[in-house]
Design brief:
There is one protein chain. About 30% of the residues lie in helices and about 20% in strands. Strands 1-2-3-5-4-6-7-10-11 form a 9-stranded mixed β-sheet, with helices on both faces. The protein starts with a helix and ends with a strand. It is globular and about 80 Å long. By secondary structure, the chain is of the alpha/beta class. The protein has 14 helices and 15 strands. α3 crosses α4 and α5 crosses α10.
């Protein structure tokens, strides 16, 4: 491994003319990088960042990378002026990307990392840029790889040494970036944290339209968001205690058989015009609620396009169930698929239109390749986590991916030394919810990569008003945290993984 790093640095010196240790931050502005321009290199004093006064001094470098004729990838690399831990961290972001995540950059610098972020080749949300084949490739995978190469080159130039280890961390779209790196560029990182990954981006967009069509099938089918808490409470009433602890968290939603029909209005008068004012559902609303849990399926091929939401996610259904369709999903069809900003989601045909979607996506965006053998072969470690109550990216997409990896790689025994997934009970999208949503996956990854300590469980806590009020353990899937039967159920020490 050490010899590979020496050879990598030597090849980098040959590849990048004038690559030598910079005498100061500003000298990096003259560094020549392939297909890229360093647009600024500035020293930032300790405490000078308004939103992060606790940051130590660092070197802030901005890069524009143009690996194709239509590329315009913005990258930032922050390099600690002192106390560098010898490692490189790349961070992902969310939605359609479109911004540099300065909060994540600040988090990396606090830990002593040289850290990089990219806008994935465009600014803002989904839009006309999605009509460019090259920019779709940039968004899909090329911008993340460019950020990694350029970031490592700057590390070598600034410190005189290549990073001894490299990590990627991201959630949501950042989780998709993370998996894409493991699948497509297995040499880029030694360890990866992929949180709630939008690994099936096109499927998630289809699901959001599936729910929008169900909600707006007719006036009677629409469930006012004010009713979602009542549906959530009913699901908890049915399944909260299945794990032996009543804590408003469904530990394992796959064991829950809650049917929203239990909320069906007994009086037709209640189910009519005054339904907003009560906690019951009309028969049409019951069917809409059931649809929330159902997968999108191509009726011609029988192929599942995307899984439904899990029991326990109902409190967050406003993401998909509001008066307007989920914007990220709608934008994909408006701009990437149909090139029509006025496209009507009610016209989407899940059978006839899906071949068009796949023909445009071409495997560039979705991160669903289950063959992780090259990443595993070089010793790469992957921690994948997802909240069971995720209201924006249904957690079944992660479970489905994990299962395809096991099937492809020969079973759990062939995978667990390099890849572990942690499902987080009660957690929403990348955080929040009634479950234990505060944890440190990067430290667990460092322990695994650097000390060979594979994570059997991850300590986690639920925080209220800045203070932890419950601790739990997150267990490596398919294990679940199981109450021992005695002791404080708010104390993690009274749980074991089974």
């Amino acid at each position: 491994m050490a010899m590979k790093r020496v050879l990598w640095l030597f090849s980098l010196v040959l590849l990048v003319p004038g690559l030598a240790m910079a005498s100061n931050c500003e000298d990096l502005a003259s560094l020549k990088l392939p297909d890229a321009t360093i647009t600024s290199a500035q020293s930032v004093a300790a405490g000078a960042v308004e939103r992060a006064k606790d940051l130590p001094a660092f070197c802030r470098v901005a890069i524009t990378s143009k690996p194709s004729s239509d590329s315009d990838i913005k990258i930032e690399v922050w390099l600690p002026a002192s106390g560098w831990n010898g490692k490189f961290q790349a961070v992902g972001n969310g939605g359609w990307n479109g911004t540099i995540d300065q909060n994540a950059l600040a988090g990396g610098v606090r830990r002593g990392y040289a850290v990089a972020s990219t806008d994935q080749g465009h600014s803002g949300n989904g839009g006309p840029w999605m009509q460019s084949a090259e920019r779709l490739i940039d968004f899909g995978y090329r911008a993340t790889h460019e950020m990694t190469l350029k970031g490592k080159a700057l590390v070598a130039a600034f410190y005189g040494n290549a990073p001894r280890l490299s990590y990627f961390t991201g959630c949501s779209a950042g989780g998709r970036q993370a998996l894409k790196e493991a699948q497509r560029f297995p040499e880029d990182f030694d360890g990866i944290v992929a949180g709630a990954p939008a690994l099936n981006t096109t499927g998630r967009a289809a699901f959001s339209m599936w729910i929008a069509q169900a909600q707006h099938k007719d006036e009677a089918s629409f469930i006012p968001p004010t009713k979602f808490p009542a549906i959530h409470d009913a699901a908890l009433q049915a399944c909260d205690a299945l794990d032996g602890v009543k804590d408003r968290v469904i530990e394992n939603p796959r064991a829950c058989a809650f049917d929203p029909k239990v909320l069906e209005c007994r009086s037709t008068s209640l189910a009519a015009g005054n339904a907003d004012e009560v906690s019951c559902l009309s028969p049409a609303q019951v069917e809409t609620a059931r649809t929330m849990y159902k997968p999108v399926v191509n009726s011609k091929s029988g192929k599942k396009i995307f899984p439904g939401l899990e029991r326990g996610s109902e409190a967050g259904w406003t993401t998909f169930g509001s008066a307007q369709p989920f914007a990220i999903g709608q934008q994909m069809f408006q701009f990437m698929v149909f090139n029509n900003p006025n496209w009507d989601y009610k016209t989407l045909n899940f059978d006839g239109d899906w071949a068009r979607v796949e023909g445009i996506e071409k495997g560039n965006i979705n991160a669903m390749d289950p063959n992780l053998k090259p990443f595993f072969a070089r010793g790469g470690k992957l921690i994948h986590y997802h909240g069971w109550a995720d209201q924006q990216i249904p957690s079944g997409s992660s479970v489905d991916y994990y299962q395809t990896v096991l099937e492809t790689m020969g079973g759990a025994s062939k995978v667990q030394e390099n890849y572990r997934m942690f499902m987080v009970p009660g957690m929403g999208h990348c955080g929040g919810g009634d479950g234990p949503s505060t944890f440190d996956m990067l430290t667990a990854l460092e322990q695994w990569v650097e000390k060979g300590k594979a994570p059997e469980f991850i300590p986690a806590s639920h925080v209220t008003n800045g203070q932890p009020d419950r601790t739990r353990i997150l267990c490596a899937y398919p294990h679940v945290a199981t109450y021992k039967g005695s002791g404080d159920p708010n104390d993690a020490s009274n749980f074991v993984c089974k």
